[in-house]
Write a structure and sequence with these properties.
159 residues, mainly alpha, 3 helices, 0% strand
């Protein structure tokens, strides 16, 4: 159906324009030559084409004005809403960043406290115990400490 219309409409328009040209040629005065009649018909058609072009350009300008006004009425409120949302997110992010900094400082302080107050005395105690064991081995003349950890000694294959 659409292919049929795409063929018929231009053919009908060409027939109408040809009919108008033939009518204008026939209505021309007898004292004019055929070339003068064709010149006058061409001038008339050029005038009609200029009129159509101006009407189309006016419609295009009108559509552009409508588009600009519509965008201004629709897009500006959306942009303001987006701006408010971004500002709220920024405020939330700022407060989260402050909380993260505060929390990281607390973790650092807690780590320092645990290192100084809990781990350091345990390390010293284990060091003293190791020194004591070594001293007992030296004094009693027992063997050197066996190689490997207790775990690896427990699962070692017999030789």
């Amino acid at each position: 159906m659409q292919k049929w219309l795409a063929i018929v409409i231009p053919v009908v328009l060409l027939l109408i324009l040809g009919g108008i040209a033939a009518l204008l040629f026939w209505l021309g005065s007898d004292d004019q030559s055929a070339l003068e009649k064709l010149r006058d018909i061409t001038i008339i058609f050029l005038g009609l084409l200029w009129l159509i072009a101006i009407l189309l350009l006016a419609a295009l300008v009108g559509a552009m004005v409508w588009l600009v006004l519509t965008l201004r009425d629709k897009v500006v409120p959306v942009l303001e809403s987006v701006n408010l949302t971004v500002n709220k997110i920024k405020e939330t992010t700022d407060s989260v960043a402050v909380n993260v900094v505060d929390t990281s400082q607390r973790v650092k302080q807690t780590t320092e406290f645990v290192t100084e107050e809990v781990a350091a005395p345990l390390i010293k105690a284990y060091g003293l115990a190791a020194q004591g064991r070594a001293w007992v081995r030296v004094v009693t003349g027992r063997q050197q400490k066996p190689e490997g950890s207790p775990f690896s000694r427990a699962f070692r294959k017999p030789e």
